[in-house]
Amino acid sequence: MNPTALIAEDEPLLAQALKAELGAAWPGLQVLATTGDGRSAVQEAMRLLPQVLFFDIRMPGLDGLGAAAELADRWPVDEAPMPQLVFVTAYDEYAARAFETQAIDYVLKPVQPERLRKTVLRLQQALAAQQQAKPAPAAADEALERTLAQWREVLAAAAGNGASAPPATSTALLKMIAASDAGGSTVRMVPIEEVLYFEAADKYIRVLTAAHEYLIRTPLKQLLTQLDPETFWQVHRAVVVRSSAIEAVHRDEAGKLHLDLRGRPEKIPVSRLYGHLFRAM
To answer: Residues where 4-aspartylphosphate occurs (predicted)?
Structure first.
């Protein structure tokens, strides 16, 4: 069977150009669908289970990074291997910095045929190796973890090192957070030592302490640069927890991990991308 792909690109002319160049560089590739936003990309990928994903980093609503993170968590690995992932970006210097050391490739806009051919060769080799391996269950688990590690590294590199914008200057770690209360009428100064976890929700981030909930507007990827990574762990694309507040880790019947935090009644979901933090499970 011919290999299959999905393209997610919000500019129709660029999506058409990428599809045409792929047709020339890889005639055997079957592009199953083209979508214009990250949410549709997730839906179509889950429906079609393509072998290769071409995701524009910047898309309306859910961007390419968020779409990839969501798919990493939801992908039905018992039905199909994790797909090969290629990011599409307009930022040459920063894309190279983010991706050049990773196993996941990138394509610059506008698409250059020679560069795309290198990407195609890399994808063909990866798919061929995947097909020939036909691993036993234990080896399949190892292959999945390698793929997840690649996705995790490149998503962190893209979000933190500027695949969509120039890298920010170094930022001092937060000690206090200026956050609104639930009513939005009062700004509270919340010591960072009191925060148990952060959760991205719509245009806000929820800031949860043992007794209160506050709201801030700082994007999660920007907030992460201001937090001590040894103190606060990202466990989901939308959740960062205080590591010392983790009381227990549970695995449900579907195999998904959840955290109990000291001082909070709710269970915190752990994405497949971050399951390696709790390897003993």
So the answer is: 56
Which domains are assigned to the chain?
4-159 (3.40.50.2300), 176-278 (2.40.50.1020)
Per-residue confidence at 213, pLDDT binned at 50, 70, 90?
Answer: very high
Provide the pLDDT for residue 46: 97
- State mean pLDDT over 174-203: 90
Q: SS3 sequence, the chain?
A: CCCEEEEECCCHHHHHHHHHHHHHHCCCCEEEEEECCHHHHHHHHHHHCCCEEEEECCCCCCCHHHHHHHHHHHCCCCCCCCCEEEEEECCHHHHHHHHCCCCCEEEECCCCHHHHHHHHHHHHHHHHHHHHHCCCHHHHHHHHHHHHHHHHHHHHHHHHHCCCCCCCCCCCCCCEEEEECCCCCCEEEEEHHHCCEEEEECCEEEEECCCCEEEECCCHHHHHCCCCCCCEEEEECCEEEEHHHEEEEEECCCCCEEEEECCCCCEEEECHHHHHHHCCC
The whole-model pTM stands at 0.74
